[in-house]
Amino acid sequence: MLLRFLILLGLAVAPASFAVEPTPGVLAVASYTGADRTERLIGAAKREGELMLYSSLTQDDQLKLVAAFRRRYGVSVKFWRGSQAHIVQRVLSETRGGRFEFDVLETNAPQIEALAREKLLQKMNSPYIEQELLAETVPAHGEWAADRLNLLVYAYNSNAVKLTDVPKSWQDLLDPKWKKRIGVESTNVEWFAALVKSFGEKAGLELFQRMADNGLAVRTGHTHSTGLVIAGEIPVMLGVYSHDVDRMKARSAPVDWFVLPPAVVLPSAVAVSRRAPHPSAAALFYDYMLTEGQRFYTDVHRVPANKNYDTPVRRLVRERQAVEVVNAQEAIDDYEKWYDLYKRIIVDRSQH
Question: How far apart are CA 143 and CA 121, in angstroms?
Answer without folding.
Answer: 6
